Amino acid sequence: MAAENEMLEQVTVTARLFYQAKAIDCMADQRADIEADLQRLLDPDSTINAECCKVEILNTQSEFEAHSQIGRKSIQALQLIKHLQDIYPEQSDITRQIVMLLADIRHVCDEQQLSFSEQDRKAHSTYIA
Q1: CB of 14 within 8 A of CB of 59?
Q2: What are the alphabetically sorted keywords of the record (predicted)?
Q3: Domain range list for the chain
Q4: Which of 35, 119, 122, 125 is 20 to 30 Å apart from 9, CA to CA?
Q5: Can you tell me the mean pLDDT for 105-115?
């Protein structure tokens, strides 16, 4: 970097960085991966006369959130797929995982003395809204 007797100043840089991250990961996981990658900037390179001394992320926004009215729902659906794989690891087929999930929801409705059909109608109304 600079010699000991050189005066240094802090320069604030505003930049837009575009990262590609796994869409199936939640925003918190994506942000953690991005923060880890940005930490590379804090590793000084002695061949240049400037070094990054701090990284601050002010905002993160997925492509879905930026460009889609249904972005949040799409992200939640992708996260659900990831969780289905965790909950039903013995079922490799998404169709079978959904069948298992629906069966488990029926069990929950029975346990809570709720009508599955009524909950399904409400879910459908929410889905089409």
Answers
A1: no
A2: Plasmid
A3: 15-68
A4: 35
A5: 96
Task: Take residue 6 and report the two structure tokens written for it.
Answer: 């050189």
Average pLDDT of the residues in 40-56: 71
Q: Find the farthest-apart pair of alpha carbons in the chain and give their distance in angstroms, rounded.
A: 77
Cα 21 from Cα 42, distance rounded (Å): 21
CB 57 within 8 A of CB 31: yes
Whether residue 112 contacts residue 121, with contact meaning beta carbons closer than 8 Å, is answered with no
DSSP 40: G
- Taking Cα atoms as reference points, which of 36, 38, 49 lies closest to residue 7? 49
Nearest to 83, CA basis, from 97, 70, 93, 71: 97
pTM over 0.70: no
CB 34 within 8 A of CB 60: yes
Do residues 95 and 88 touch, judged by C-beta distance below 8 A?
Answer: no
Quote the radius of gyration of the chain (alpha carbons, Å).
23
Q: If you count them, how many residues does the chain have?
A: 129
CA distance 28 to 34: 10
